Amino acid sequence: MNGPVRRGAIALGLVVLAALIPYIGLHLPWVLPSTVNVVNSTGTLTVLALCFIFAGVALGYDVIFGYTGLLSLGPVMYFATGVYVFDITLTHWNWPLVPALLATFATSLVLAVVLGAIALRVSGIAFTMVTLAFAQAFYYLIEDNPHGLTGGDTGLALYSARLPAFMSGAVSNTRNLYWIALGFLVVAYAVVWLVTESATGHVFVAIRENERRLEVLGVHPFRYKLAAYTLSSLVATGGGVAYILLIGTAVPSAVASVTVTLSILIMVVLGGAGTRWGAVTGAIVYVYLQQYLLKVAAQPSFASLPAFLRVPLSQPQFLLGAIFVLFVIFVPGGVAGVVVRRRLADAARRFDASSATPTTVPLEEP
Amino acid sequence: MNVFLALTFSGVALGAIYFLAASGLSLIYGLMDILNFAHGLFMTLGAYVAWDVATHLPASWGAPLLFVIALVASVLGGALAAGLTEVVIIRPLYGRPIGQILVTIGLDLAVVGLLLGGFGSNSLSVPVPLWLIEASHVGGLSLPNSDFVALIAGVVVLVSLELFLRRTRYGITIRAGVENRDMVSALGINVGRAFTLVFVIGGAMAGLAGLLYAVVFSGDLISPTQGDSLLIFAFIVVVIGGLGSIRGSAVAALVVGLVQDYANFYLGSHPGMAEIGNLSVVLLLALVLEWRPRGLFGSTL
Fold this sequence. Notes:
- The complex is a heterodimer of chains A (366) and B (301).
- By secondary structure, chain A is mainly alpha-helical.
- Helix content of chain A is 70%, strand content 1%.
- Chain A has a single domain (14-354), classed as ABC transporter involved in vitamin B12 uptake, BtuC (Orthogonal Bundle), CATH 1.10.3470.
- A two-stranded antiparallel ribbon of chain A has the order 1-2.
- The termini of chain B are far apart.
- In chain B, the strands form 2 sheets. Chain B has a two-stranded antiparallel ribbon with strand order 1-4. In chain B, strands 2-3 form a two-stranded antiparallel sheet.
- At the A-B interface, α5, α10 and α13 of A face α4, α10 and α12 of B.
């Protein structure tokens, strides 16, 4: 089998396997992130669904950060748009599902195009800071609870009689919501794959590599940058919708604060920016680890540890932050970078072995 | 009119703190092209070191002396944290600008997580002398003494920073590096030392800003995430002022402090507008960038 077909088969196999997890009643001690050590328990399915949701969001973010090379700190704004607009239209205004979905994505589209156009007037670090400022303004707006819509700090629970029964937040529905999350990831992957492999996607990469040169060639980078920004925003909004369905409550600190943006950035960097499977892997590992560490820290035996071990180990934020720093310094390119370098080294070795005159020229640093 | 003057005064005091937080960021960016996300952490650490020192020394020394020691401790704490950061985690990444931004993000998350684990998310109270909480009467106005402290600190730092950058050899090296780093290293000057120096200076100012913000605006309370929220405004000040410009930071800090203060007072009392001060600052940023994408005093970007 050649490369693309084999990779497609592997991806299909993984999706089928993931889709079957709710039927696996296996008892697995130690490794699961929920206190019930059963693979298809509600807790584990929820964590896995959360993994898939953030994997999708991270993929979208990879389009703007990894492929196009723009360090945006705004993705949380579009995630929060998905969470809140969907929640508000259903809970407060009692809209049916489809109009609520349309309104959510339309809001996100308008926001992304308008704010993206403003932010893209500047480049480099200034762009980063402007996207951060907009996201922060959005956060303040949600905290303000205008007209009682967002619930402010207390949050807004999703409650709607118009929501189809199989989607409601009942515990018995967890596997449905799990499949919705998986479906979101598959759709996000397909969209990102189609775009990044298209001519447009190649322009994204060209912007990252050398924007000036692109301008000389007569291509206007602005339109492409806005397209990448908008695409990644819409994917984040989809993630927000899946999130509020799964979790059932929107709290600003969990869905709209800058910490969420930084987590998404970390996921992409850990996995390897600029690769699709890297972003997905990074997000799944990050979310899983975060939930798993919380579980470990909550165990009674943990309290007997001396303080200098217990305090750092009980803080996933500390552990993940520290792992991230080590990765950035020692593993540039993330997990995907390691694999790519090994593949290059293998190819070089094969080339050395096959060439008639053994060459001693070392492989040039990339 | 009196209300307006009092508001202006507290807006200027807020601006002074923003200046302390932002000028270091601006210098670091100007010289090293690093967007330093750990700057909020330096503010938080400065405040925590000050708290730690002030609460562990004997109370019999008297509150005024303890407060002066706390101020010094915040400066030293911030400077030490920043110096270590530059040497240990920034230095291995020279030549990888995105990597440098990323490690500062990771460091910020990690250490704030550690503070949350060690001290909890609840606020701690810094001991301050009584007169700091009182107000002075100047020409019919009642002005909080803490605002005076912030204002004096801001002016002293601005003047000494300008003197340092214009009159001393190191300062001139830094300014030259901001203008053209490659040329400075080509002339055989050790730019690496200047990198560490701007981090130390920036960290010292950030530590002071962290403590003063707690004293002036949050009722002497410090919390692990305080620096991060202050950092957003410092970023905004730096962009409005123009990246790399100290004078730009000073002017922008004043404007941002005043706009936030006026908006909070005149509009914030309406229902659902409690955050209008913060929102108006972001709006100001958008307007300035539409008008001057490089900021007020920015030349190159």
